[in-house]
Amino acid sequence: MPTPFLVCDDAPLRASLTAWLEKGGLAPSTALTLVVQVGDPPPLDADDRPVFHQPDVLIRSGPPHGTLTLSWERAPALAEIAPGTQTARVTLSRLAVARLQECTCTFFMAVLIFLLRRAGWHHVHAGTAIDPAGRGWLIAGDSGAGKSTTAALFASHGWQVGTDDATFLAPAGAQVAAVAYRAPIALRPDAQRALGRSGGIPVAGRRKAAYWPEDLGGRWAPKVEPEIVAFTSVGEGPTRAARLGARAALAQLVRWSAWVVLEPDLAQEHLDLLARLARQARSYRVSLGPDLFTDVAGLPDLVR
Amino acid sequence: MTDRYRRHHDLRLAALEDEGVILHLGSRSYFTVSESGVLIFEALATPHSVEELVAVLQARYEVNAEQAEASVRDFLERCRAADLLEIEAGA
Asked: If you ran DSSP here, which 8-state letter would residue B48 be given?
């Protein structure tokens, strides 16, 4: 059973969206509903709330009425989530339906992120893995920070890998779990070369090829309880790790969990979850050097 | 005339072993605060005067009134500049 529950009268569209939801592998216990109809989205002219910009998606939230709205910039599409509900109502134009693959990668992904907040799952821009010693890792950072290459390298050395990019933090008893949105690891050509890989799944519109962890010799890890949080960047010298205190780690987690500043009713819950993770894990600022490609085991050694 | 201060209603605070991070939902920005900053911010959930905040600090730390007042005023000024406070002007 995919989550959220999908309601859509357009059979081909429903089939495509169901496949997309199933692929993501997310299953929170809270019942969430995604209602999708095809038509002309209503204009947002009267909504003068500040706009939060994400790639190709514009988000409005907060007072006075509290309804969250997301609109897609590439073709008319609008999602609304009313306060106190676990339902996202989406109106897709025919133009948006014609570009559904793009639309799922950006617009629907953002809708899913906000819907999952209603289940207490909060997004962080990070990858996840479990090392051979069984320790859970969260690898946070911007595009270009080495998350995908590191995830692929880990998988190539038999680590379990959850995701290279999209993670949801969720309460797990006294702990915080990092739940992976399942998607193949997308690598740039230089990363493919460095890893000695060819082929892969072409990523539409981007000069990247993608690999499932299993294709690289690893296994998929749907959920991780992070013991180590690494805030990565790519450096020229040898790989280095510097320990961060909990306050600095929390500030970094806030940085990579941008949605935390939206929706006043959910912001404290989101912030508290980040704070719990900052307490739970040992955090490091990690500069990833070229030596990582020949000595993956050196990285766990740096954070012992 | 005694002004009273409270934290901005758009703020959210997470404390970590007495340090903390403050989110400002209005400006969509965040700030890190020290142990004493967390203490003052927790007090500022309700309106407090400078004198009352000085008492809050002195109840936790061994610090004289002059040092405590200087710390409170400096902290409030930095918070005011970052739009983290609501100020009720004294009558």
From this structure: E
Mean per-residue pLDDT of chain A: 93
pTM for the structure as a whole: 0.92
Indicate if the pLDDT at residue A204 is higher than 90.
Answer: no
Q: How far apart are CA A240 and CA A229, in angstroms?
A: 14
For the complex shown, is ipTM > 0.90? no
Q: Which residues of A touch B (CB under 8 A)?
A: 52, 62, 245-248, 250-251, 254-255, 260-262, 264, 267-268, 271-272, 274-275, 278-279
Token reading at B14: 């997470």
Question: What's at A268, amino acid-wise?
Answer: Q
Q: Which of B16, B19, B38, B41 to mutate to test the interface with A (most CBs of A within 10 A)?
A: B16
Q: Torsion angle of alpha carbons A144, A181, A71, A266, nearest 10°?
A: -100
Q: What is the pLDDT of residues A226-256, one digit of tens each?
A: 999 999 999 989 999 999 999 999 999 999 9
Candidates B20, B25, B29; nearest CB to A264 = B25
Instruction: Answer yes or no: is pLDDT of A85 > 80.
Output: yes
The Cα–Cα gap between A144 and A147 comes to 8
List CB contacts (< 8 A) between A247 and chain B: 16, 19-21, 32
